[in-house]
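Hey Z.,

So I finally got round to the NAP thing we talked about over coffee. Here's the setup:
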Amino acid sequence: MKNKSHQTMRAVAIDEFGGIEKMKPRKLPVPQVASDEILVQVDTAGVGVWDPFEREGGFAKEFGMKTNFPHVLGTDGAGTVEQVGEQVHSLKRGDRVYGINLMSPKGGFYAEYTVVKANNAAMIPQALSTRDAGVLAVDGVTALDGLDKTLKLKAGESILILGASGGIGHLAVQLAKRMNARVLAVASGQDGVEFVNRLGADKVIDGHRDDILKAAHEFAPNGLDAVLLTAGGKAAEQAIAALREGGRAAYPNGVEDVPQAHDGKVMSYNGEPDPKTFARLNELIEGGPFEVHIAQTFKLEEAAEAQRALESHYLGKLALVLS
Ligand SMILES: NC(=O)c1ccc[n+]([C@@H]2O[C@H](COP(=O)([O-])OP(=O)(O)OC[C@H]3O[C@@H](n4cnc5c(N)ncnc54)[C@H](OP(=O)(O)O)[C@@H]3O)[C@@H](O)[C@H]2O)c1
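And the result:
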């Protein structure tokens, strides 16, 4: 096997935490693989709405960790396994994989190569391209953990998904349908409504225009069983108000302006990657046509522009393409 450890790669890194101007295209050494890790040749890197928080030092502060600068940005992505550590038996060279790298001391996915803990990566479902899988890992795991582990969604239950045309939302709509739930999707804009209708939601409304309480009452006259909030504000408040007695609401940490209920029915959680969650996610995705939507791609060197675009209205996710 050709050893990449003495070679350099193109990457976008920061020398200190701060604004978008700190992001610089660089030549950096290819990171070295430890025994429980894999080296991935990156095809696509996800550009998450939380990436600016990484760049500004928010995660480093939250986790109380020291950061190795230059720090290569990017928390998820997909590519091909180039090398595996000696303890890794689940993956091999040449496998198409997707995975998560949150504040790894060896850097993230905004690079030609990245090192990932094998437990934080998985084979890409056959039906998905490597490109599309590049934006799947964090939002897919977070969508599934919300529906499954946190809300404990059961077949036949009704669920409202707020932000249904966004990163987590469009995946959650499809996963909840695979779990045989009834899905009321609250999307953003007319384009969002058309997009989520195509994904198979039972009913789709525009959360910026339509009356959420009225739609929820028509959809579930006795109240909703569950609500997954990927956005906050008045829309989230209305979604929570539409729950039945004993109904559950959840939001991933990071969502801003989420109303707190005093009876404990609003739960916060984090998406936690592990082999079992990836296996369940892949199994659900393999169950039929599944769309992982990339609204716009950028070249690696345009990473700063991609992070600026996070502020605009778009469907699904943004991505950097390396190949
Ligand atoms: N803790 C964790 O493990 C974890 C993991 C992943 C993500 N997160 C957090 O989860 C949140 C969502 O992540 P994401 O990747 O899904 O972000 P996203 O793609 O920005 O999704 C949020 C969506 O909500 C839409 N939206 C906002 N207000 C709405 C309304 N009133 N009606 C309908 N849609 C509305 C937004 O569209 P417009 O902008 O067009 O309105 C956007 O499409 C973020 O805060 C992120 O940081 C946490």
